[in-house]
Specification:
539 residues, alpha/beta, eight-stranded mixed sheet, six-stranded antiparallel sheet, 15 helices, 25 strands, 27% helix, 23% strand, AMP-binding_CS, Acyl--CoA ligase, ligase, ligase activity
Amino acid sequence: MAARSQRPVNVGRLFHWAAEQGRPTVMHLDRPFDIAPDSGTRFDVPALAATVEDAAGWLHGAGLRHGDRLAIVKENHYDFILLAAAAARLGALPVMVAPIRSEAHIRTLLTRISPKVLVMGTTVLARMTAAGIALDDPGMTLVAVGEDRPELPGNTLRIDDVRGGARPPVRFRGRHEPMLVTHTSGTTGVPKLVVHSSATTLAAVPFRIESYRLPLMTSRPQDVVASGISFAHNRNLSWTGGTLFRGPRKMVILSEPGLGNVARTLAAHPPTSLEACPNVFQYWEELADTRPELFANVRRFISTFDAVHPRTVRKFLGASRVRLPLWAWGVGQSEIAGIAAGVATRSMVRPGKPRAHDATNVGFPPLVRVKVVDPETGRKRPRGKPGLLMVRTKSRCLTYLGEDDRHRAKDRGRWWNTGDLGEYAGYGRIRLIDREVDMIPGMSSIELESTLLDRLNRASEVIVLGVPGQPPIPVLCMRDDALDPQEWDRACRGLPEMDKPRLVPWDEMPRTATWKVRRGELREQLLGSSDTYGTGQWT
């Protein structure tokens, strides 16, 4: 086995290194890769490295060279990171963009990227064409991946059109040069494009935690490790690096969160570790109720990107038949990796336990420094007093692509303004309260939503919107799209006054690529207003 110091810190080296080390892991997909539709759904590590090599060849054939930018805008799948690795081997800068809802936002992001080559999924490309948005930028080559569609633009190339050239030279960028760009969730508007280097990602400790041998927390050789996240985000990079280093038996990819697809895939490959975004786990609660056997072998559940609710944790830990299953959660940002993290057990989230939300809302900063400051004065806040969370970490991004001024506005010397509200909770812990833009004076919407979810068992989503001049407005997704008035009255007992609930089907809730609810868009959709208590100046 290679020495620790030889572990790759450039994504372009990652899969080839794992193949050279003889990693025994086999990856199983819920559907074929968009960039390799005829290669099946089973890939060992050498096959993954070969797919990266092949992609580097056809990207080079499309005109991508050292110093150029590659934009990747496609359907959610793990091959985002394979394309990023291929571009990095050429010394190009890959920019990964998930298939966000707004075609206008995608066009804005492409203008900021100014790519030499655009790899776009055919579904997204058809949406752009239907919206009348042209993708004929001068000097840009457009390569479509995915299923054929008749309505594709005339300038569209397919992979076979740019394949067959000479093997391109491998030329990595420097450790502190831009290596990879991902975008933020975009809950409040057009997502920001976050620029990272090798030094701020795979070389930084927060990205390497899962490579270490931590009892109960990291992968073992016999494990089956499944992931159902947004693969266009940095979490895919850290998960890939840690998982390939630990070498579990299987990696299972859930590219689409639909209940049927997830049930079919997990039945074929019962996981011992399962990761998804918090809102996806909420959606999957129906499976935990109706198909608990799918989660019987899971000893470690992982949720990242956002806060998670105790009811969700309780249901999945209850479905596991392992003696001591754990729920590991983390909250972070694309710009800085983690802000706070924690671990929950069954006893910590049992029904009726006082302040059970602390198990999923109060955590320790994961190898970063965090302070709580007054939003107006910048002075540190005492324990129990909410304020803005400021983070100091070596994994902080370099800038926002095309928005340097916006990046500088959140940069406070060695500290980064997260735009999140929290408070000191003692023993070095941080309690998360809200995003500043979504704040409701005198309460935490996270805790209020957790309480309502506990009391409304058929609810798959609860969002509470703060609206100046009136009581908070609850928005509910119910499994059967119905809510009995008496059921609602019981759920509200002892809680702050709220307006009448609004029902929205889960599929119609405006969401980001990480399945977070776009509260601003939801507020406009339901109320026709953008008024909030927060300033939103740090979003």
